[in-house]
Design brief:
The protein is α+β, with helices and mostly antiparallel strands and 326 residues long. It starts with a helix and ends in a 5-residue tail after the last strand. It has 9 helices and 14 strands. Helix content is 31%, strand content 26%. The chain binds adenosine-5'-triphosphate. Adenosine-5'-triphosphate binds next to strand 8 and strand 14.
């Protein structure tokens, strides 16, 4: 009900009287008043004028279910939300929900992660109040080998969502990092439960440094935020819904086609490594290659100094610039 009232307030510039709202939602006027009180306590500025009614003046930078649902126009991605003030990892939460049979599209959102994860057991710093820490549940009927393609789609959807939100040059470091000015602004951790032939579910975990003002010493050389790059604080829920909408579109086409052919060009146009010499790190071994692009499976095509091409698979390597992170 709170979400419905918030959506209604959001979509009108007029005053809405308590009577109108109670009729619309079939609740008492006291109940309407209580919901308004709750919303105010959450940080929404709601004007109330005698004989006119309520009007939403300012929304809060919240990532609660109501705040996201009242703006989300995607059909199914993020249409069910589980919100946590604090949790170890939203990927862990989605794993339990998935095991309990929850539907594709479920989004876990946390204000803070105490054990945020990167690839290969690395940690992902996820403090309170400034970032976006979300995980999405998917149940695609595709071969398990294709699961890594979902990471490619998520990275592209993030770039598009950020660009819709703010005017910044956003790039991708293959396969899973979103980069602004050479530093990492988002990371993606895709996890899967599968058998040989079939996927049970995929978890797409996303961390976005949205309004972060500063980073700890250990990551400050490679981490940045949308705020640090643009000087502007964004409304995090808005970026979440932009992502849901962009991802849903890309994912539906992918499921229909079964490959990445139609997004290849757009993804490559965002790729920071393209045409550059990169270091491919595999089992502590380093190979120096030129990055050419991706194929329809989302693998990175690289070339050695003799012009011989090969592809590398995201599950087994890390890519670095020759002299630094990118
Ligand atoms: P790879 O190229 O293999 O993906 P990566 O260093 O980008 O390497 P990830 O697993 O994607 O690794 O991310 C985890 C790493 O990101 C951590 O080891 C840390 O260096 C860095 N990191 C941790 N928290 C953040 C954050 N909030 N923002 C940016 N970078 C972070």
């Amino acid at each position: 009900m709170k979400t419905k009232i918030l959506t209604y307030l959001r979509n009108t510039d007029e005053y809405l009287s308590g009577e109108q709202l109670s009729r619309q939602f079939q609740v008492s006027r006291t109940a309407v008043w209580k919901y308004m009180k709750q919303l105010r306590e959450e940080g929404y500025e709601i004007e109330s004028v005698p004989r006119k009614g309520y009007r939403l003046l300012k929304t809060a930078d919240k990532v609660t279910a109501s705040e996201i649902l009242s703006q989300n126009k995607a059909q199914w991605v993020g249409q069910e939300i589980e919100y946590f003030e604090s949790t170890d990892s939203t990927n862990n939460r989605i794993r339990s929900f998935a095991e309990n049979g929850r539907k594709e599209g479920l989004l876990a959102v946390a204000e803070e992660q105490t054990g945020g994860k990167g690839r290969w057991g690395r940690n992902w710093v996820s403090p309170k109040g400034t970032g976006i820490w979300i995980s999405l549940l998917l149940r695609p009927q595709i071969e398990p080998q294709k699961a890594s393609m979902v990471t490619i789609l998520a990275a592209l959807a993030l770039v598009k969502a950020i660009k819709r939100t703010i005017d910044l040059d956003v790039q991708i470091k293959w396969p899973n990092d979103v980069i602004i000015n050479g530093k990492k602004v988002c990371g993606i951790l895709t996890e899967m439960s599968a058998e040989l032939e079939a996927i049970h579910y995929i978890i797409v975990g996303i961390g976005i440094n949205a309004n972060t003002e500063q980073f700890d010493e250990e990551i400050m050389d490679r981490a940045t935020s949308i705020y640090l790059e643009s000087g502007k604080k964004i409304k995090r829920a808005k970026l979440i819904v932009e992502f849901c909408q962009e991802f849903e579109q890309l994912y539906e086409i992918f499921i229909e086609r079964g490959d990445l052919e139609n997004v290849k060009e757009e993804y490559e146009s965002c790729l920071i490594n393209i045409g550059k010499t990169v270091k491919i790190i595999k089992n502590k071994q380093e190979l120096i290659r030129k990055a050419i692009g991706i194929n329809e499976l989302g693998e990175l095509i690289v070339e050695d100094d003799k012009g011989t091409r090969e592809t590398v698979f995201s599950g087994e390597v890390s890519v670095r610039g020759l002299y630094g992170y990118v």
